Amino acid sequence: MPSGSEEIRDFFTRILCAPGADGKLRALAQKGTLEELFPEINAMIDVTQPPEYHPEGDVFEHTMIMLKHMAFPDPLLGWSVLLHDVGKPLTRSVEASGRIRFFGHEEEGASLAEKILKRFKFAPDESEVICHAVRNHMRFAHVTAMRQSKLERLMKEPSFGLELELHRLDCISCHGKMAGFDFLLGEYVRMAPPEPEKLLSGRDLLERGIQPGVRMGRILKDIRRLQLSGEINSREQALKYVNNLRKDEIK
User: Residues 62-108: pLDDT tens digits?
Assistant: First the structure.
């Protein structure tokens, strides 16, 4: 088993990015290895949650189900999932009515995540993304009530895509209510800038001696790709690209 901080980090990253991450972590928990290597995650076991919001079970079970549902696992998303509720064991309380609460678990979780990631020697930029996701994951539950200006700022944040996927996994792994996710997805599509008009057509290439067929299609596709990436920004530049292709072929 790994011993050093970086070895432990890499060990868990490999687990999080491979199929069956939930099963592997469950096995580590049963053997006692998880408690030894990662006590903060092991502490989530048997931390019960309100059944009306979390019919799936305790905090550890919820997290394992999220990992199971990751369609496109990557290190930042995997670690964000693993740590998003790490503050719950420290903030759990029970009201006189019997209702279970986790007041401030996201802030407590972000603080704890920062210490964990520092211990495992994560790069500062990676730690920032993960801690931001942990600290802010609850705000996605209230997006339908956000002011439009605040909503637009949220969707323009660099890590919005990762945090939206974290929110999706969070919802499908507990109560299954997807209204916030569906709303955000719709707003994101609505805000996306329309694609610019194509710079050249098949007629333009035909006028320059390029016959219809596979070659013409490939050239038009390449020009479109370069346009969308910002490498070609005008009709004149596109025509110059075509002329250079022809010169290269003559050589």
Answer: 999 999 999 888 999 999 999 999 999 999 999 999 999 999 999 99
Using the structure block, give the residue that is written with the tokens 């920032």.
128
Bridge partners, 94 (sequence order): 100
- Closest of 187, 180, 149 to residue 166, by C-alpha: 180
| Cα-to-chain-centroid distance, residue 171 | 14
Tell me the pTM.
0.77
Q: Could you count the other beta carbons within 10 Å of the beta carbon of residue 40? A: 20
pLDDT in tens, 22-46: 999 999 999 999 999 999 999 999 9
What are the structure tokens assigned to 211, written together? 């016959």
User: Domains plus CATH for the chain?
Assistant: 5-191 (1.10.3210), 202-250 (no CATH)
